[in-house]
Design brief:
Blueprint: H1 4-11, H2 32-45, H3 51-66, H4 69-74, H5 80-89, H6 91-98, H7 102-113, E1 120-124, E2 135-140, E3 145-150, H8 156-163, E4 167-170, E5 173-176, H9 177-200, E6 205-211, H10 213-231, H11 233-236, H12 238-241, E7 244-248, H13 256-264, E8 268-273, H14 283-294, H15 297-307, E9 328-332, H16 341-353, H17 359-375, H18 381-390, H19 402-414, H20 419-427, H21 436-445, H22 447-462, H23 468-492, H24 499-522, H25 528-534, H26 537-554, H27 559-580, H28 593-598, H29 600-623, H30 627-630, E10 635-637, E11 647-649, H31 650-673, H32 680-702, H33 709-734, H34 740-767, H35 781-791, H36 805-827
Parallel strand pairs: 3-6, 6-7, 7-8, 8-9
Antiparallel strand pairs: 1-2, 2-3, 4-5, 10-11
Helix pairs in contact: 1-3, 2-13, 5-6, 9-10, 15-31, 19-24, 19-25, 19-26, 19-27, 21-24, 22-24, 22-34, 22-36, 23-24, 23-27, 24-34, 26-31, 29-32, 29-33, 29-34, 31-33, 32-33, 34-35, 34-36, 35-36
Length: 828
């Protein structure tokens, strides 16, 4: 259920949600097309420039919050979801919220609405049972309203009312059984009170309002009162025939014919968030969800989200199950100016036809404008400008070819880890670990991370005069030269100089460091769908080289041919980028890097959680290759590292592992970029889940049990892909467009710090004895290194080979961190 606070905030024009049209809960949105059709009718009935309607909706929203009384005043529950969580996890807190004394509830209600005690006609502050909600009836002399404010779901009794979802006859249609009986009981209890109040205040209007369940019950009460007034005008009079209802986040509980009648007579208004699933979920949607689960279509839905394919047409739903939100639906797209295109066009036409007004007309118009500013229905100018810059073109088709550009670059990156790095090492004649040559090779291989580290921020200084589009071209050139060295000089001409590793890897690292941040910025104007495809190119590049490379090598294919393939793909990728990537007038407007640093307060604080997640992600990914030193060819024991039973070929085992890497990284990226992350809290939750996946994966790897290694790797890379997709979406939606490049640069820079630290620990760990032992039987190398590092010299070593390790690890880490810090000072 959409948060009450978010609904009120959206009506006031504050940005509490992002512009996302796709939500993982879309599987239950069976009524999506019906709501869209109904929305067109509502737009025609109540344009957004109706200030009177919006002002009344805003006041009704405040009354809806006041119905929660002390709980709403203290802000203990932002939404029904949180309320349910508190009920199930912290029962004491729930009991406290539901069992506040009447005096405190009454004081909170009067305080929120600025009413005198005598203006509270009657109230029931807690649900007395199922079908008996909390409510309050009050007089508002400033608005000239007699208000009936019905509380939404807050107690277990309310939840039971929500669960009575059978469709029953209601007036000339059907409706939610629980809410029908609730509204009937409520009217029976307060109808005489309302008749007396309206007789005493004939100029006042009767207004029902509520949030969630309260909004639905309010609309049904209005429908019943108007129906009774039409049948017996003498008994009820105009007060019943002209009453109206305002709902906030009202669920779909009434059949279409009743909803249309309420909308056409302007008897009910509903404010819903564009991303809220509750106004779209009804009996029919839940019914089809159950059918889908039986047919296992949930798996197909995940695959469709991952592949971007269009959903298949569904069977038509039974008319008797169709339910919609009651009344005129004011659908809010959070973060955008609230006026619709139709209303804006109407206003422009009115201004064009407007004749010079009289002075009193000017005054009236001025007063209207002042009222609109008081209601604050639109965002500030700076916020509106920022969001308009971030908006994507509607229905922009994805340019899937951009995935091949990223694939060509990350194939080059894949050549620097795994099988091709091992082949490079053996081609140089370095086959024994623990030697000085092996140590030199490993340190030279870390050059790719040094290159990335330098390029992440350095490109903003060295290539400041060049556009991001030109920097991508330069980056691909660096990668081409870096791959040329092992392909031609080492494998073809027979060079055996270890220094070639450092030159090749640092050039490739420079290219990769420049490419990743600038490429994402350049393709931003192509839309989120294009970016969702492009970022899959990274895991696809690794999968192409590592999975196919391992498979091909098992059939006797020499590694040099894979190097030639990578080299040939880079010009193809450059040609595709040159042909399809936007530039010139379509290129992203980018601020000077120094200017972005001076304005860091605008974008840096929101990126800090993503920096931490990226550091952990790259640290974990850089440590997983240490598995190669856990299990040695030709066979891998699946259950016990010391056993000679249940063995699997080394190449097959790691081919399967790379498949899990590809699945975890690629699927999670596509899902994460489409996740609904409207608030900072939700983004932190998703980031926390991603980091939890990484931590769990590292722990499972530390057990050194081969059979669970693919699952552990899948979790690590699922977390990495989720962090990547969430960050790409966050930068697009919540970082001003001119600072996109700087935010990507810092984000990648922090990730490379984690990668460098991970690479150092792997090498230091091997120096500490893991490799010589043949298999680390109980701990993952990086975790082992960290444990030993922080244990200090005063604690006993884990084995006889490690007494001197802490001093050596401290020395290696200190030296590397000094280099990193000195380089960072130079570049900053």
């Amino acid at each position: 259920m959409q948060s009450l606070w978010n609904a009120v905030g959206d009506l006031a024009g504050r940005r509490s949600m992002s512009q996302i049209s796709i939500d993982p809960t879309a599987v239950i949105r069976r009524s999506h097309n019906d709501v869209d059709k109904y929305q067109k009718l509502c737009k025609g009935l109540s344009p957004w420039d109706d200030l009177q309607t919006l002002s009344e909706m805003l006041m009704a929203a405040v009354y809806s919050r006041a119905a929660y009384a002390y709980t709403g005043r203290r802000g203990l529950f932002d939404s029904v979801t949180q309320g349910a969580m508190v009920f199930s996890v912290h029962r004491a807190a729930f009991d406290f919220a539901e069992h506040v004394d009447d005096a405190s509830n009454e004081a909170a209600f009067l305080d929120m609405m600025c009413l005198a005690p005598e203006d509270l006609v009657c109230a029931q502050w807690r649900s007395l049972g199922p079908l008996q909600p909390a409510f309050a009836v009050a007089r508002d002399h400033s608005l000239q309203w007699i208000v009936v404010s019905v509380r939404g779901t807050l107690s277990l009794k309310d939840i039971l009312t929500d669960c009575a979802v059978n469709s029953v006859p209601f007036l000339e249609g059907t409706a939610h059984e629980g809410f029908v009986k609730t509204s009937q009981k409520l009217l029976e209890e307060i109808e005489d009170v309302l008749r007396k109040e309206m007789a005493a205040h004939k100029d006042y209007r009767l207004v029902f309002c509520g949030h969630s369940m309260g909004g639905a019950v309010s609309a049904m009460c209005v429908a019943m009162l108007r129906d009774k007034a039409a049948k017996d005008a003498d008994l009820y009079g105009p007060w019943a025939s002209q009453c109206c209802a305002y709902g906030i986040g009202t669920p779909a509980v009434l059949s279409r014919n009743i909803c249309e009648r309420l909308a056409q007579s302007h008897a009910a208004f509903v404010a819903v968030n564009a991303q809220d699933w509750s106004p779209r979920a009804s009996v029919s949607s839940v019914s089809e969800l159950l059918d889908n689960l039986v047919e296992l279509s949930l798996a197909r839905t995940v695959i469709r989200m991952a592949t971007g394919s269009e959903p298949q047409p569904r069977r038509p739903e039974p008319a008797q199950l169709e339910q919609l939100p009651p009344g005129v639906v004011l659908q809010i797209a959070p973060g955008q100016v609230l006026a619709s295109e139709m209303a804006s066009a109407d206003m422009k036409e009115a201004k064009a036809e407007e004749v010079q007004p009289e002075p009193e007309v000017k005054d009236k118009a001025g007063n209207d404008l002042a009222a609109k500013e008081d209601v604050d229905l639109e965002m500030s100018q700076s916020d509106a400008t920022e969001d308009l810059e971030n908006l994507e073109k509607p229905d922009q088709p994805p340019v899937r070819i951009m995935m091949l550009v990223m694939l060509s670059m990350f194939q080059g990156y894949a050549s620097m880890v795994g099988p091709l790095q091992s082949a490079y090492k053996h081609r140089l004649g370095i086959s024994t670990d623990g030697t000085a040559a092996a140590h030199a090779f490993t340190q030279a291989a870390v050059g790719v991370h040094y290159g990335k580290l330098i390029a992440r921020l350095g490109h903003n200084v060295i290539f400041a005069c060049l556009s991001p589009w030109a920097r991508v071209v330069i980056a691909m050139g660096f990668m081409f030269v870096g791959i040329t060295i092992p392909t031609i000089l080492v494998f073809s001409l027979g060079w055996d100089w270890v220094g070639s590793v450092f030159i090749a890897y640092i050039l490739s690292g420079l290219g990769l460091g420049i490419f990743e941040v600038t490429f994402l910025s350049v393709i931003t104007p192509l839309g989120r769908a294009t970016k969702a495809w492009a970022i899959v190119g990274a895991p696809a590049g690794f999968a192409t080289i590592n999975i196919l490379g391992l498979t091909a090598s098992s059939f006797g294919l020499e590694m040099v041919y894979i190097y030639w393939y990578i080299l040939a793909c880079l010009p193809v990728g450059l040609f595709l980028f040159y042909s399809f990537a936007p530039r010139g007038n379509t290129e992203l407007k980018t601020a000077n890097f120094g200017s972005s640093l001076l304005q860091a307060r605008r974008w840096m604080p929101g990126m800090i959680p993503f920096f931490a997640a990226q550091f952990l992600s790259h640290f974990a990914m850089e440590n997983w290759p240490a598995i190669f030193y856990m299990f040695h060819p030709p066979m891998v024991p699946l259950f016990n590292p010391k056993s000679d039973q249940h063995l699997m070929k080394w190449g097959q085992f790691f081919a399967i592992t790379y498949i899990f890497i590809f699945l975890g990284d690629s699927i999670s990226r596509r899902i994460a970029i489409y996740l609904s992350t409207p608030s900072l809290r939700r983004r932190l939750v998703f980031l926390g889940l991603a980091m939890s996946c990484i931590a769990l994966g590292l722990y499972l790897e530390s057990l050194a049990i081969a059979i669970i290694i693919p699952l552990a790797i899948f979790l690590v890379f699922w977390g990495n892909g989720t962090i990547y997709g969430l960050t790409a979406h966050h930068v697009d939606k919540h970082v001003p467009s001119e600072h996109n490049l700087a935010s990507y640069s810092f984000w990648c820079f922090v990730g490379d710090l984690g990668a460098v630290l991970g690479g150092i620990l792997v090498d230091s760990n091997r120096a500490g004895g893991v490799e010589e032992s043949g298999s680390d039987t109980g701990s993952f190398p990086a975790l082992t290194a960290l444990r030993r590092l922080f244990a200090g010299p005063g604690e006993p070593a884990a084995s006889a080979k490690l007494p001197s390790y802490p001093d050596k690890a401290c020395g290696v880490l200190s030296a590397e961190l000094r280099v990193i810090c000195s380089e960072s000072v130079v570049f900053l």
